Amino acid sequence: MALLIGCLFILGAMNLPAAKAPLGQKQLQAQAELIVTGRVIAVKSKVQKSRVERAFGIHRDKVFTLTIKVASISKGTGVKVDQEIRVVAWQPSVRIPPHPGLQGHDSIPGKGDTVTVYLKWNKAGKVWEPLLPNGIEIKKEAKRSS
């Protein structure tokens, strides 16, 4: 019983991050290094060990690699219209034990969707990442066959 109380005390004293509130339009525009609108031409996903959640337990994230064909650029340089860029987004897949914290990107587009993405460059991964949590705006969903 004392061990259980001690564990609860330690867990209560830990600094656990909360889910991140959505950014306003001005915040998205100010924080983004690159803002593009385009069509998603490919979506790949895989489940892997979480790079975000570091607490004790089993934590896996579903990582999405989006290939976007750029139609227009609102902010930033180094990318051209009609260029294909790779964007990496994520959502939690498994959290054992469950912990409060970042919940990844709000929406993940499908192939053919038109999106506006607010991006930051990840130097370590050499990829563009949408701002958390709402750096992906789905403007128009593609028709999907059922």
Molecular structure report:
With 146 residues, this protein is mainly β. It has a single domain (21-140), classed as OB fold (Dihydrolipoamide Acetyltransferase, E2P), CATH 2.40.50. Helix content is 13%, strand content 45%. It contains two helices and six strands. The chain has helices at residues 2-13, 25-31, and strands at 34-49, 58-75, 84-96, 114-122, 127-130, 136-140. Strands 1, 2, 3, 4, 5 and 6 form a six-stranded antiparallel sheet that branches. The longest helix is centred in the first third of the chain and has 12 residues, at 2-13. It starts with a helix and ends in a 6-residue tail after the last strand.
Can you give me a brief rundown of this structure?
This protein is mainly beta and 146 residues long. The protein is 13% helix and 45% strand. The chain has one domain (21-140): OB fold (Dihydrolipoamide Acetyltransferase, E2P), CATH 2.40.50.
